[in-house]
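Give me the fold.
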Amino acid sequence: MLNYSTSEENYIKTIYHLQNGQNTVSTNALAEKLSTKPASVTDMMKKLKTKKLLHYQPYQGFRLSSEGKKVALDIIRRHRLWEYFLAEKLKFKWDEVHAVAEDLEHVSSKKLIDKLDEYLGHPRFDPHGDPIPDSLGKMDKNQQITLTELPVNQPAEVCRVINQSGEMLELLQHKKITIGTRLEVKRKFGFDHSIEIKLKQQPAFLISEQLAKNIFVTL
């Protein structure tokens, strides 16, 4: 696999995430996500098309080619393995690992990443519950629903957090919610769609609908 610049890798990874569930990604959507100008996006799209990493037609959006998806999954694999290493071995907090992994993900030595994966025992999920692609780009998937979908009085376990901003993770930590936390929904309120939840050996408490939508659980 060829080496790509940090900027190219950031574009490829971002396109992959934006493309998830959609056929194409627009120039404006990518520009907004990367906080850059649409003209800069257009220039990069031409470069990536030349390298056969995406299919791009002006004014019609773009999508990753099969080779582009391989590159994206390789970047994501590196990022999530580094997050796991930082959290499990260096005891970084889960709201600290993302920013550091953003830098480490651009170290593209395949031997290093494969050794890191072996050293960590081939983890399947990162500290936020996102699946880690294996060396072939395959990821485990588990049946999961958002906390808003969880029926009342149904025990469940937190398995993933979608919003991984520092503010979000700080709030979850304050409420003692992390990956693996066992909980139940005790009541749902129609007025503002807030939810009362109960953790083991803690009094029940309210969380907002916005927070609940970012928490995924397995039964």
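DSSP finds eight helices and eight strands in the chain.
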